[in-house]
User: Which sequence fits this backbone?
């Protein structure tokens, strides 16, 4: 069954038809071609598909696209301003927080939500915020370091 | 060189622009799915695919009988049909494939395929498999491999010992959990050839495997590696199967077919780390000199050999650990079972035996009332030492330095002396573990141990490097780019590393065994030196300076007080039709291994490492928290120290998962941990603080002195954690993972006061 | 996932009409963190999905008439961060903060957690010790059911297909009441409880006047450790009593043996977790 939905994705208005059983993840990838949103498990266990829905980090594999009606979605593609990287993207590069890269977009979105909420998060808040993201390459330390470094730069 | 460098692929990954295979969609593409066996061991009496074929949107249903080439995908031993034909031997065996307009139609079609099975009795442990009258997994018998080492005189050694200990250790099946599941996109070309894009560790394996099943010559199969989201050994041979499936469907439908495994499919099909039972008898003098080791390794190979014979070789060679022991007897057995195949995983047979020998060494130290660091220093390999295979080490042995540096960095002496009790039911402890690891394929893999690179300098002075090794997250491309930049005196941004493509470079063997820095690096340098020779010759003529005085530095070629910019020189070369393309090649120094005695130069060089873990144990629940791991690793020259540190941190955390948490469980051949909710890996809240320490014992055969690193850091962790638990509680755990339930049980059994 | 009809009711009544008409083939969608996993696995193949996520009247936390009222669509994240819940039902805030991961807590709801009826649900033992009730509504009216009686077994509740949870409430306890939740999982994030314990008690001058202990993930539904409650009632907390009560609570587990832990170990954990709670209370005195 098809539904027409209106939403804002990465700052742009989108009005389109979507089938009722499509997940937000499938919609973003297959219909909007936002391939930076990754599927690592499809069960909400890995966090690779994390996007921001009205500013909050959610697992797009466990949300129906139709549920995103009237919402505001931000994916990794909407983070940089043109070629100017977001400080978190910069920090992930500088701190060596990127290896295979498959968990990276979701992690950066999770980190953004944290820093939007707490400009100077505690160590515990940082670890907690990315607790729902599995990374198998880095052992997390460089990722934590990247997030800390962005928080530290803030006034 | 030797300076921390930002990864060259990082920008594409933080922006979400990197293209993994699931991100590539082409017009007219179909989706492939596979039908698994529900049984661990059964005879296939018949398959009815008619209903599935009739489902709208289905374009092909394929069973074993349709395979145009040979239905065989075994990488080392030809024992594995790509599609099960008469027998299914584990629950990941596939009996049919479907290509359809969408993944959900394909899924529905699978449900319409009727397979008539007659179940067969199975064997589910290696011990069972080798028992008399056990059901056979393959007709030739359940014993796949037996490897031996015979060094010195074991009886004599035992006789001279003041102390002799014996213990059996058990290790579990571990899953890789690369975050990107395996996937392939097969594109049938107009000329009858097949191009495959995939999440692949070893494209040359895939090329050979796909050509074989399609019945095509290898020049009709081209493999291109997409950005690959982690491998850890799990994408060594299994992608040949998935690419084989996708290309069969593409061949049948004449349409591109994409096959991206779901996490559950990936867990069900992909190989795992071997479960092993390892029995050690180890003896020493009062002074702590280890005189003998008698070792028996029994590994559950699973339903097919995959890479087991080579994994077992590594277990055998590394069974004694990084110690010089005069009298050694090792027997390693690998047995078929009806479990998921065991194959390649980071460390490749070494972490399993390391857990055992490092626990044994600590037990010896405890019985001798000796410091665990001391016993390792007494017995550790050094220049001139002889390994268990009788190999005399003539270069690059950094073991002792790793032991000393790790010990100093973690404040070993004062911490070991501290009170273990930090609360009524909490204890802390510190444990050490050492390892060595033969770089590259060694004697058993020597025929595959050459690697190529194809380099060209373009008209604008930019450089393209195609290597046969792959990038799967470990940082290989960055390291090769750094070496190329250094060699040509250019900045890093002038170098591009191309996606690995079998049509660009000759067969370079697999990207495994911590070999890429050395092999792709040396091959690249070899190619660049050829180009530099041509350029130097012309520069010498243009500048009127002798060639040996010329140097490539800072984007210039200079010497004798004169210089020309690199780019200008390139233009001169082009204007004179001087070839600025070259192919480089590097072959492993010779290795040897005698099948009867196990004596020989098993690997051309070894990496070494020492880790010290600090743990806290909750006596009430048995839960262990690893607080800190100091990890010192001798990697030869660290080309990119930032990359080395990252590899160490990631490897240690996988090692902590292996030590405490991860267990891919099977009961009677059925998977008990089918998803990431049940197969759990460490999260950011579970990891210790890791302190990487880089030790550089230069290897003259490595590029700029480098050795391999990728696998080292996971190898000693589990034993370091087990030894720390022993220090904290006095309990020796001999079985991995050290889950809280097992530890609580052991605490209750051995310490009545709890 | 298979296809289905999807509707977004604008009122509770409209939602009730929709589920009444569709009967068993309808599924209510709140946060979706359990439902979507189950639908993907094919455990449910609803013909109609009723998305109640935008019924804002079912969201929110307030204190009124001697009760803390919680809208069933309140997310775990909001529960964990609510000052009201932290003050009057700390165990529930603690339970909500231990669900899955930040992303799951952002979507998952209290009503969903109750209706999903997992023995490992992190909010259920706390709700039991807070003596919470659930308002269950249908077109014919509504009824209040104690949380303790809602769950009948894994994925089984007393809720009928035409019913919807419209409110959750627990009494504002008098001074001297405290509650706590302890969970043991194999790891510290993304973990499903191997065992969990919630306790709620009135203490007066070190003496336990009344105590409720609920255990999660140790039997097919949430169970009370009645014997331990009896042992503790009327007594002052001290080491040997804590030890006896904890061991007794362990015995209240009834077999749940799975890959996460044996029943033997779950008993050990229950004892350890209860002891941890009682110990901290004793030390506070």
Assistant:
């Amino acid at each position: 069954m098809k539904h027409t939905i209106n939403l804002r994705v990465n700052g742009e208005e989108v009005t389109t038809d979507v089938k009722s059983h499509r997940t937000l993840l499938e919609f973003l990838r297959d219909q909007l071609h936002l391939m930076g949103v990754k599927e690592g498990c499809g069960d909400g266990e890995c966090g690779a598909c994390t996007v921001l829905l009205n500013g909050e980090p959610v697992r797009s594999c466990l949300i129906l696209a139709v549920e995103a009606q009237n919402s505001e979605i931000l994916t990794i593609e909407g983070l940089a301003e043109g070629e100017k990287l977001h400080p978190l993207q910069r920090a992930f590069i500088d701190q060596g927080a990127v290896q295979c890269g498959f968990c990276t977009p979701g992690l950066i979105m999770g980190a953004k939500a944290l820093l939007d909420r707490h400009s100077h998060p505690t160590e515990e808040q940082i670890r907690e915020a990315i607790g729902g993201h599995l990374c198998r390459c880095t052992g997390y330390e460089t990722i934590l370091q990247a997030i800390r470094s962005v928080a530290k730069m803030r006034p | 060189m030797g300076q921390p460098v930002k990864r060259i692929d990082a920008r594409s990954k933080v922006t979400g622009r990197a293209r993994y295979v699931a991100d590539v969609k082409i017009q007219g593409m179909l989706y492939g799915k596979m039908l698994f066996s529900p049984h661990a061991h059964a005879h296939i009496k018949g398959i009815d695919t008619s209903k599935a074929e009739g489902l709208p949107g289905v374009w092909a249903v394929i069973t074993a009988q349709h395979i145009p080439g040979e239905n065989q995908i075994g990488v080392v031993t030809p024992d594995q049909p790509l599609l099960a034909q008469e027998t299914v031997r584990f629950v990941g065996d596939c009996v049919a494939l479907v290509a359809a307009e969408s993944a959900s139609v394909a899924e529905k079609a699978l449900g319409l395929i009727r397979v008539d099975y007659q179940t067969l009795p199975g064997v589910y442990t290696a011990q069972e498999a080798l028992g008399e009258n056990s059901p056979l997994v393959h007709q030739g018998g359940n014993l796949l491999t037996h490897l031996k080492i015979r060094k010195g005189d074991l009886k004599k050694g035992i006789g001279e010992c003041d102390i002799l200990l014996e213990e059996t250790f058990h290790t579990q099946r571990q899953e890789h959990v690369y975050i990107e599941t395996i996937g392939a996109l097969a594109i049938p070309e107009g000329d009858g050839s097949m191009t495959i894009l995939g999440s692949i560790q070893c494209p040359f394996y895939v090329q050979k495997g796909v050509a074989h099943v399609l019945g095509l010559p290898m020049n009709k199969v081209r493999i291109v590696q997409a950005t690959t989201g982690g491998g850890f050994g799990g994408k060594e041979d299994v992608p040949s199967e998935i690419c084989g499936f996708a290309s069969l469907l593409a061949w049948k439908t004449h349409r591109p077919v994409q096959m991206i495994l779901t996490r559950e499919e990936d867990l069900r099909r992909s190989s795992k780390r071997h479960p092993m039972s390892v029995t050690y008898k180890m003896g020493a003098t009062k002074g702590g000199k280890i005189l003998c080791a008698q070792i028996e390794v029994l590994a559950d190979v699973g339903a097919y050999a995959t890479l087991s014979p080579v994994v077992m070789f590594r277990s055998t060679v590394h069974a004694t650990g990084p110690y010089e022991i005069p009298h050694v007897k090792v027997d390693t057995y690998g047995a078929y079972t009806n479990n998921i195949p065991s194959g390649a995983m980071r460390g490749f047979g070494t972490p399993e035996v390391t857990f055992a020998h490092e626990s044994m060494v600590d037990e010896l130290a405890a019985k001798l009332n000796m410091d665990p660091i001391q016993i390792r220093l007494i017995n550790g390999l050094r220049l001139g030492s002889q390994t268990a295979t009788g190999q005399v080490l003539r270069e690059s042995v950094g073991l002792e330095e790793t032991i000393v540096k790790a010990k100093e960095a973690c404040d070993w002496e004062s911490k070991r002396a501290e009170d273990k009790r930090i609360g009524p039911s909490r204890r802390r402890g510190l444990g050490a573990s050492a390892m060595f690891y033969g770089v590259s394929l060694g004697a058993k893999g020597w025929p595959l141990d050459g690697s190529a690179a194809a380099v060209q300098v373009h008209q604008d002075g930019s450089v393209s490097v195609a290597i046969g090794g792959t990038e799967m997250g470990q940082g290989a491309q960055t390291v090769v780019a750094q070496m190329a930049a250094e060699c040509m005196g250019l900045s890093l941004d002038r170098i591009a590393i191309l996606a690995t493509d079998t049509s660009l470079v000759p067969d370079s063997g697999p990207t495994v065994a911590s070999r890429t820095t050395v092999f792709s690096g040396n091959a690249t340098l070899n190619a660049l030196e050829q180009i530099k020779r041509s350029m130097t010759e012309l520069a010498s003529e243009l500048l009127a300076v002798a060639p040996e005085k010329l140097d490539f530095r800072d984007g210039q070629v200079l010497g004798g007080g004169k210089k020309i910019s690199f780019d200008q020189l390139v233009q001169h070369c082009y204007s004179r039709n001087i070839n600025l393309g070259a192919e480089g090649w590097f072959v492993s120094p010779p290795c040897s291994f005698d099948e009867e005695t196990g004596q020989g130069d098993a690997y051309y060089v070894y990496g070494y490492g020492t880790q010290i873990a600090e743990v806290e144990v909750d006596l009430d629940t048995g839960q262990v928290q690893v607080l800190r791991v100091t990890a010192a690793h001798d990697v030869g020259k660290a080309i990119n120290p930032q990359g080395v540190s990252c590899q160490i941190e990631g490897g240690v955390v996988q090692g902590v998962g292996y030590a405490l948490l991860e267990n891919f469980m099977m009961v009677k051949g059925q998977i008990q941990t089918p998803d990431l909710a049940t197969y759990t890996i460490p999260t950011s809240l579970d990891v210790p603080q890791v302190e990487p320490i880089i030790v550089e014992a230069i290897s003259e055969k490595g590029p700029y002195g480098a050795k391999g690193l990728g696998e080292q850091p996971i190898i000693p962790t589990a034993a370091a954690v087990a030894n720390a638990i022993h220090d904290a509680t006095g309990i020796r755990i001999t079985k991995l993972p050290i889950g809280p339930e097992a530890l609580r049980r052991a605490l209750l059994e051995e310490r009545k006061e709890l | 996932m298979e296809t289905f009809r999807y509707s977004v009711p604008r009122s509770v009544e409209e939602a009730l009409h929709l589920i009444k008409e569709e009967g068993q083939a309808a599924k209510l969608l709140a946060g979706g963190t359990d439902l979507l996993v189950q639908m993907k696995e094919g455990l449910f193949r609803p013909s109609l999905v009723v998305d109640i996520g935008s019924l804002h009247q079912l969201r929110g936390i307030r204190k009124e008439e001697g009760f803390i009222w919680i809208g069933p669509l309140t997310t775990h994240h909001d529960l964990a961060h609510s000052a009201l819940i932290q003050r009057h039902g700390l165990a529930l805030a603690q339970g909500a903060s231990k669900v899955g991961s930040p992303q799951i807590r952002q979507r998952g709801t209290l009503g969903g957690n109750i209706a999903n009826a997992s023995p490992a649900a992190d909010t259920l033992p706390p709700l039991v010790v807070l003596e919470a009730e659930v308002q269950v509504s249908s077109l014919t009216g509504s009824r209040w059911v104690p949380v303790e009686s809602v769950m009948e077994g894994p994925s089984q509740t007393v809720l009928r297909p035409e019913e919807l949870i419209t409110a959750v409430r627990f009494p504002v306890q008098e001074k001297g009441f405290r509650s706590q939740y302890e969970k043991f999982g194999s790891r510290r994030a993304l973990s499903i409880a191997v065992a969990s314990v919630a306790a709620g008690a009135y203490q007066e001058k070190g003496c336990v006047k009344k105590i409720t202990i609920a255990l999660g993930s140790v039997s097919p539904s949430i169970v009370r450790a009645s014997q331990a409650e009896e042992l503790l009632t009327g007594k002052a907390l001290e080491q040997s009593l804590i030890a006896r009560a904890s061991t007794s609570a362990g015995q209240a587990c009834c077999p749940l043996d799975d890959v996460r832990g044996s029943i033997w170990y779950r008993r050990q954990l229950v004892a350890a977790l209860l002891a941890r709670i009682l110990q901290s209370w004793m030390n506070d005195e």
Q: What stands out?
A: Residues 276-443+593-753 of chain B form a domain with the Aldehyde Oxidoreductase; domain 4 fold (CATH 3.30.365.10). The first strand of chain B starts at residue 30 and ends at 36.
